[in-house]
Amino acid sequence: MRWGLTPLLIRFLPGQSPAGPWSFIVGTVNVDVQYARPARPYAAWRTLLRFEVFISVIIGGGIGLGWALTGAHGAFWPGWVWFGLAAPIWLQGSVLWGLRVPRGRRFLALQLSASFALAVMFLVIWMLTGFHYFWPVWPILGLGVLLALHVWMARDQSAAREQALTARVDVLTRTRRGALDIQAAELQRIERDLHDGAQARLVSVAMSLGLAESLLASKPNELPGLLVEARSTTLAALDDLRTVMRGIQPPVLADRGLEGAIRALALDVAVPVTVSGSLPGRPPVPVESAVYFTAAECLANVVKHSGATAASVSLRHGAGLLSVTVGDNGHGGARLDGGTGLQGVAGRLESFDGTLDISSPAGGPTTITMEVPCELSSPKT
């Protein structure tokens, strides 16, 4: 009685519910209540099932006792009543067992548990009807065939999903390695630029100031020239530092966004560049930076290798995909395996699940399309 009544009557305990009045049943029946148990899935269904079992046991026991007291003979008809009471509980229990399985295999587990429950019910009906012709073999066989078909389909789906996951892991491994290589190359470039540019100039400034300090007492008339030289060298070092900073994150990209930065970049290219298209918003900062530098690399390749007299850049965004197309009227022949430039572009884009498509037949023209999945920020005002 405690097992069947407690889950339904617990909310009537005094002090356990905001509006729960004292229950005469709970106040009369001695029940052991355990609190602080973790919530289980489908707790309400489990509670109702427990109460259903409790009521079914009472009804089944009463019917069996009544049959025994009446001295009935012949067929044991209470068995059918017990079967009618147990069948819904048995089916619900099998469904609850199947729902315990994780989502990926839940449907197969539900079919397995329901098929087993139905098979047992067919066997019980066969036994209650007197063990005649074993007809349950046919529905059980049908359930088994359906289950086997489902297992075969789930196996194929699992194999396809495993292959997709393996391919995805390979892509992520390659892109992570590429991202690390790009980061290492960028650090080396920054170190080289600082070492060959700003650092060398600052060393020259330090030497000029040291020489000026030594000549302060002996030859003060030579100090103005040294100070002018030190000042000009300092300004040159500042220009070198600004160049390095622009290589890390161009200020125009932060101020005007990707579209404005590419339009500004097109003005500095030796080949005339036409920029078309527009973006209704701004991509995320990492994507924006990656696409800007890949477009800059493509335009640099146009100047260095294509022999083109004109180039174009097209921007567009649709269906969650940012697309940048760089084209030129050069002699063509650009290939992904033809050098490290385009490979670096592809590696930079792969870090963001981007793709690079090259169309460059011999004789031109060349079209390089870069696509990166991303969402834009709110539209420009």
Question: What is the topology?
Answer:
Layout: H1 2-9, H2 24-28, H3 43-69, H4 78-99, H5 106-128, H6 137-218, H7 223-248, H8 251-267, E1 273-277, H9 285-306, E2 311-318, E3 321-328, H10 340-350, E4 355-359, E5 366-373
Parallel strand pairs: 1-2
Antiparallel strand pairs: 2-3, 3-5, 4-5
Helix pairs in contact: 1-3, 3-4, 4-5, 5-6, 6-7, 6-10, 8-9, 9-10
Structural description of this entry:
The chain folds into three domains: 2-160, no CATH class; 173-248; 256-373, Histidine kinase-like ATPase, C-terminal domain (Heat Shock Protein 90, 2-Layer Sandwich), CATH 3.30.565.10. Helix content is 64%, strand content 9%. It is built from ten helices and five strands, in the order ααααααααβαββαββ. A five-stranded mixed β-sheet has the order 1-2-3-5-4, with helices on one face. Helix 3 packs antiparallel against helix 4 and helix 8 runs parallel beside helix 9. It is elongated, with a radius of gyration of 40 Å.
